[in-house]
Structure formats: C-alpha cells, structure tokens
Amino acid sequence: MRRSIFAVLLIVLAACGGSPASLLPSASRSATVAPISFPVTVTDFQNKSVTIAKRPDRIVSIGPSNTEFLFALNAADRIVGVDDFSDEPAAAKDKEKVGGVKPNVEKIVSLRPDLVVSVQISDGSLQSIGAQGIAVLIVNPQGAGDVARTAILLGRAIGADGDALANTVQSGLDAVRTKAATLPKKRVYHEVDASDPNKLFTVGPGSFIDDLIGIAGGINIAASAGSQYPQLSPEEIVRADPQVIVFGSFGVTAEQIAARPGWSVITAVKNKRIVKVEGSLLNRPGPRLPQAAEAYYQILAATP
C-alpha cells in the first residue's frame, strides 16, 4: 500500500491547480503550430524561464504523468530514463530507472541527458542536476486545467506538436462533459488512501480528480475541503452519505470498505455501489484524462 500512495504523492508534491471548465483558450484550439526552432525558452510550473539550447535527444522523465506525456508526444526513442513509478505505456517499463520519490542524481547524470523533465521535488536533487549544466524543467500538473498547459509546454520544450495533443484532450473532456450534463448529480466519495482508518485521504478542490468528478456529472463530498488531498474521519463520510464510493488499487477491497463500523447506513454501501478502478488511470493528470473522465461517467451513469 505504501508504494502505491508514494506514487500518488510523487504527482502531488506541489499544489498547482487549474480550472476544469476549459483547458484551452478558444484561439488555441484551431491554431496552426509553426515548427519549433531552437534554442527555445519556456516557462515551467515554477514560473522559471528555462532555455533549451537544442532539440533534446536524451530526456529523463521524473513523474509518471510526465512520462505519459512524452510518450504521447512521440518522444519514446529520446527517453533514456524514467522514475520507478512510470509504468504507462508498457514501453516505459523498459526504460532505465532513476529512482522513486528521491531521484538518484548520480544515475541521472550518468545517462547524459540534455533535458530532465520532473515534478517538483524539494530534496535538492533537481538543483544538483541543474548544477551539472543540464536543463531541468519543472512540470507539475495538478488540476485538469494543467493538462493542456503541460502538453503545450512539453511540446515546445522537445520540439513536438503539443497543441495537437492538448486539443485532443480538450475534445475528449468536452464530449464527456456534454453527455454528463443530462445525468442526475450523484454524491461521490473517492478514497485515495486508508492507511489510517481514522483519517481517510480523499480528493478536494483543485485536484484533478475533483475536476474529473465534476466533468463526469458527480458531486464530490469533499468539495468544500481546505486542501487538494484532505483527510476525513469515517463519521464525516457517513454524514455526507455518498451514493457511490470509488477507490483504487491500494490494498483494500469493496467488502472491507462496506464492513467498516457504521458504514452500513451509507447509500453507496446499501446499494453496493463501491467501485474499484484501475489505479494509474485515475491517479495521473496526464494525456489519458479523457479516458479517466469517461470511466467516472460510466460509474455515475450506472449509479441509481
């Protein structure tokens, strides 16, 4: 269980939310993208200007969502290393591993990258890599609104058509949002981690899963929480009375959730609407976001 939650935490090390209503400015949706010439200067998620001297041929990716974006941008042959949690697409598993929550700086430098794309990490490792003269780009998507920004940013950084990928993601989300508008709203409890049975991690405002719930036609019971990943007591969840409970592959079962003390009165438990979803799909704000929204829509559409 702990390895799974560390994989989630790798995505949410820094809060940087976005609006789910529209990922792209309308002018960007049909714009023709000019070929990218190098050197190019881009602004990363820390509002830092990063100059990339030439088209990167050796890229290290830290963060599963970043790895998925790079593959989606057809940069697979240029990726020389990924973090331990990057397992999508399947070809990512064959890439050299460079560490997990704490990257292996020596290993990364030994791979001779000309660009490191990473989520925000506060242990000083990224600064050490940058001190070697390697370009480091912080890409830390959190809300659904960050997904298009990520596609466009990475496209410019590596010399690929990020606008096309952003448009594809936007179109997919718009399609789900349109059909979800006809559904009755359902109360949703999304469980992220239950390691502490008295303080259950869920998703709050500004997180991309909260955005997904809204896009798919649901109401997040933690929508008014004060953080992206708040902890709720079991009693708070009982009072909120979710109509559906969604959880990932974190070492618990639907039967165990239903058997929690006092939970038999919850509507989702009474109606047997405790749904397990494929972990990485709903734990990564990456290019598969439309598929994640569709998965959530199907769950809500099947909930009485």
What does this structure look like?
With 304 residues, the chain is α/β, with parallel strands linked by helices. The chain is built from twelve helices and twelve strands. It has two domains: 2-12 and 32-160, Rossmann fold (3-Layer(aba) Sandwich), CATH 3.40.50.1980; 182-301, Nitrogenase molybdenum iron protein domain (Rossmann fold), CATH 3.40.50. Helices cover 35% and strands 14% of the residues. Helix 5 runs antiparallel to helix 6 (162-180).
What is the CATH T-level topology of the largest domain? Rossmann fold
Query: How many helices does DSSP assign?
Result: 12
β-strand percent reads 5-15%
- Domain tally: 2
Give the overall shape: elongated
By CATH, the superfamily of the largest domain comes out as Nitrogenase molybdenum iron protein domain
Largest sheet: 4 strands, parallel
Identify the CATH class of the largest domain.
Answer: Alpha Beta
Number of strands: 12
Order of helices and strands: HEEEHEHEHEHHEEHEEHEHHEHH
> What radius of gyration results from the CA coordinates?
20 Å
First-residue to last-residue Cα separation: 31 Å
Mean pLDDT: 89
**From the coordinates shown, what is the CATH architecture of the largest domain?**
3-Layer(aba) Sandwich
| Helical content band | 25-40%
Strand order of the largest sheet: 4-3-5-6
> Which structural class do the helices and strands define?
alpha/beta
Q: Spans of 5+ residues with little confidence (pLDDT < 50)?
A: 1-8, 10-33
Q: Could you list some keywords that capture this structure?
A:
304 residues; alpha/beta; Rossmann fold; 2 domains; 4-stranded parallel beta sheet; 12 strands; 14% strand; disordered N terminus
